[in-house]
Amino acid sequence: MKMKPIQIVCAVAIGAALLFCAGCKPKAEQAVQGEPSGKPSGKRKIAIVISTLNNPWFVVLAETAKARAIELGHDATVFDSQNDTAREAAHFENIIAARYDAILFNPTDANGSIANVRKAKAAGIPVFCIDREINATDAATAQILSDNYSGCVALGQYFVQRVGTNAKYAELLGIVGDNNTWNRSRGFHSVVDRYPGLKMVAQQSGEFDRAKGLEVMESILQAHPDIDAVFCGNDAMAMGAYQALVAAGKDKQVKVFGFDGAEDVIRLIAEKKIEATGMQFPKTMARMAAEFADEYFKGRRDFPQKVPVQVELVTQDNVHLYTGYGRKE
Q1: Average pLDDT of 283-291?
Q2: First-to-last C-alpha distance (Å) of the chain
Q3: pLDDT, tens digit, for every residue of 198-242?
Q4: How far is CA 278 from CA 47, 184, 187, 198, 215, in A?
Q5: How far is residue 249's CA from residue 260's CA, in Å, rounded to a whole number?
Q6: To which H or E segment does residue 95 belong?
Q7: Which candidate, 129, 233, 229, 240, places its Cα nearest to that of 187?
Q8: N or C: which end of the chain has fewer CB within 10 A?
Q9: Which region, left, alpha or beta, applies to residue 65 given φ > 0 means left and ψ of -120 to 50 means alpha?
Q10: Residue 175 gets which letter from DSSP?
């Protein structure tokens, strides 16, 4: 039977479509389990968004995360939010537009940063919070956090041991929108508030910043020149407070306590100029975040929402075991 030209064209078109579909599979079958559809395994793009690089502690966090991501075979780029939630939001917009595969995130604000994480999640980009948390348990894939509260309970106990139960002290708080600020303060006060003779004469924010810590400490000393100690919510502020005390000639009168495990403070503890700090482990947290991202690319989805990392008390008695940002190897 002879076919008409239009029948020939239709037959060819149908045959081509059937041949094409024979080689196709549904998207769920195309993609490796746990990987974005249509994306090959192997090198991915990881964004590392840090609250500020104007603090050596966060520089260590960023550099370690980047180095570990590269070791695992991925590309990594660091973004500095400069403690500005608007700048952080702009970073997220750019990261989503550039189709990054994961974000290792050090938030600027526990509440203000939630929307950014949700936008990334909606775009299919997993977010792993490092060191600082957000006040949501359904946005980030995982949050890797120092056990700030317990670390400052230990610090508070040592504070009482060194300062005594009858003394005047000041507290330098960190950024008020950061949960770390309040977890540290609550842990510290869970101990010292048991002693009525320990009087807090001032409590001000030094914004986790060395220069601001110096400025606030100078102001406190003018109003309360007879204080016996100062508890600082991080080591940058502890260094600023110590500088102010040296300038005022009160560095031997006022005992300084910090939190972080920064290199400068470890050195001054060894020199018996600062009393103690809580050693966080930024390198541990940063490496873990990069490894979690790599595991996510390979299909893992059972990440715990919060992963606590232990804080260790560093004093003049055990400082020989530590270096900046960790234990000596």
Answers
A1: 98
A2: 86
A3: 999 999 999 999 999 999 999 999 999 999 999 999 999 999 999
A4: 29, 10, 12, 21, 23
A5: 25
A6: helix 85-97
A7: 233
A8: N
A9: alpha
A10: -
Q: Are 254 and 218 in contact (CB under 8 A)?
A: no
Q: Please list, residue by residue across 100-137, b when 16 or more beta carbons sit within 10 angstroms of its beta carbon and e when fewer do.
A: bbbbbbbbbbbebbbebbbbbbeeebbbbbbbbbbebe
CA gyration radius, the chain: 26
Residue type, 150: S
Residue 112's identity, in one-letter code, is G
**Nearest CA-CA partner of 106 in 174, 209, 213, 180:** 180
Nearest to 55 by CA among 151, 167, 131, 164: 131
Beta strands in the chain (DSSP E): 45-50, 75-80, 102-105, 127-130, 142-146, 167-173, 198-205, 229-232, 255-257, 276-279, 306-309, 312-315, 322-323, 326-327
Give the position of tokens 């299909």: 299
Strands 102-105 and 322-323: unpaired
- Dihedral in degrees, nearest 10, Cα atoms 137, 139, 140, 142: 40
**How many CA atoms, within 13 angstroms, populate the side-chain half-sphere of residue 84?**
10
pTM: 0.85
Instruction: Provide DSSP, 233-281.
Output: SSHHHHHHHHHHHHHTT-TTTSEEE--B--HHHHHHHHTTSS-EEEE--
Residue type, 81: S
